[in-house]
Amino acid sequence: MTPKEKLRHVIEELSEAEAQDALGFIAHRRVGRDALLELLNSAPVDDGPPTSDEDHGARKAREELARGEVFSAEEIKREIA
């Protein structure tokens, strides 16, 4: 039996009050769902050594930061709004 089939079976056995509570729980979980966080949490760990491109990018980013070439979160939000 699949998880959805098991869930359907259990739902049929719930009282109306229990069904209302379960529905509230499911609705809360779905609204609070963060697709990006789920994606990042399921991504494989990159434990290999950095590539030369990655080293170059990190070096370039540090140089830009040292020169003050940065954007605040508020600036980025305004730019994409």
Please summarize what this structure is.
This protein is mainly α. It is built from five helices and no strands. The longest helix is centred in the N-terminal third of the chain and has 16 residues.
If you had to describe this structure to a student in words, what would you say it looks like?
By secondary structure, this protein is mainly α. It folds into 2 domains: 1-40; 51-81, no CATH class. Helices cover 72% and strands 0% of the residues. It is built from 5 helices and no strands. It has helices at residues 3-13, 16-31, 35-42, 52-66, 73-80. The radius of gyration is 23 Å and the shape is elongated. The mean pLDDT is 89.
What are the low-pLDDT stretches, counting only 5+ consecutive residues below 50?
Answer: none
Radius of gyration: 23 Å
| Count of DSSP-assigned helices | 5
DSSP strand tally:
0
Q: What do the pLDDT scores average to?
A: 89
The N- and C-terminal alpha carbons lie at a distance of 46 Å
Order of helices and strands: HHHHH
Principal-axis shape? elongated
Largest sheet features: none
| Overall helicity | over 70%
Write the layout of secondary structure elements.
Layout: H1 3-13, H2 16-31, H3 35-42, H4 52-66, H5 73-80
Which short descriptors sum up this protein?
single chain; 72% helix; 2 domains; mainly alpha; 81 residues; elongated
